Structure formats: structure tokens, C-alpha cells
Amino acid sequence: RDRWQAEQVAYLLGKLQGAAEGAGTLLDNTLLLWSSEVSRGNVHAHDEMPFLLAGHAAGWQMGRTLRVTRRAHNGLLTSILQGLGGANSAFGDSQFASSPLGL
Question: Structure pTM?
């Protein structure tokens, strides 16, 4: 199942990269987030969650791996909102709300 999903994400990214839009491509104007509900399904863990971000819509540097520890993923969602022009300083349940990651 994971392999098939990864293949579908790769296919979508290839199509976005291959579609011209303005002076660039659709991928230049897209931010794709791919993740899972849990980091380890056997215990329903939420620590060390893997996230994949692709595209350049938020102006972030891609092609790198970041390890962010001891932070709720709400900080990533807040960063995405702000990167796309939102003014939110937090996202989601206030118990897990955290400041943007500064990507």
C-alpha cells in the first residue's frame, strides 16, 4: 500500500513539473503535503512523524531533510498557512498549537 501511494505521489509531482504555467510549471505554484495519520501504526504513535513537502508555492528551499523534535505538527501547518499568505499565528487545538517552524 505504501509503495503504491508513493508511486501515485511521484506520478502527480511529475505531471505538475511537466505542466507549464506562466514562466514556470504548476509545481512551482504548488505546495504538496504528504503524510500519514501516525508514525508507527502498531502503537498509533505521533512522535517522529514523517512529512513530505514538494513544490515551491511557499518559497521554501526544497531538496533537504529536516528533523524537528518535540514539536506538534501544528507548527508545520501554521508554517504552511503563513507560507501561502495566511496571517494565522497558530493552527488547530490550542493544546497542541505551536509557533511556525521558520522554514
Answer: 0.80
